[in-house]
């Protein structure tokens, strides 16, 4: 791919990427959101909101101290296009979330008491639009990650008791969010301490929930989970039991990262 040319590349502190098919042109697009820290004086409140493309967003964006620059590349094009600067920062995700021809990320406002938000990027009209979060989630409970389960946008939250997976059954309809799965505390055998006297119930204190990833829902209905980049587990929501998977591929290292993708037979034109 061609390189992105910026005025001051050293000022960018990180970025998130997205990839998907534009349903109108049938061309693939790559999206990169690069962000850097700025002061509130650098980005006035009225400028921050008026510079957004698409419908007005919540007031939480105005207090952000992060300025992002958005670039998009149509596969086959020799150059990236700069879509402008926006006052937000997305949480980095290990797997992208593409639903209804839109890429999705979690956005965390800087304000301490504000809730996290879900933002989508439409690959057709190239606009950012906020996706409604469940009204029945308490404001102090945050989503840890977004996933796609059976084609539906889903959000994962957690506390000391385990994970909750909320599924948006009808896209962009706030009332369609339901709590589909509740997954209790579990420690895979490979991560259990050698001292068998320590119970797995107490082990949750050394296995933080942020080290657990929801990967996908299998055809059997089970939920595939990754623990600390070291263990794969299938959770059966009907029987509420966990099954450890043995990862014994030749040459695989102790730690690994699972990437969920959908196979496609579509040829990508690059010239």
From TrEMBL:
Q: Which domain of life is it from?
A: Eukaryota
**Record InterPro entries:** F-box-assoc_dom_typ3, F-box-assoc_interact_dom
Can you name this protein? F-box associated beta-propeller type 3 domain-containing protein
Give one Pfam family: FBA_3
Species name = Gossypium lobatum
- Residues in domain F-box associated beta-propeller type? 12-181
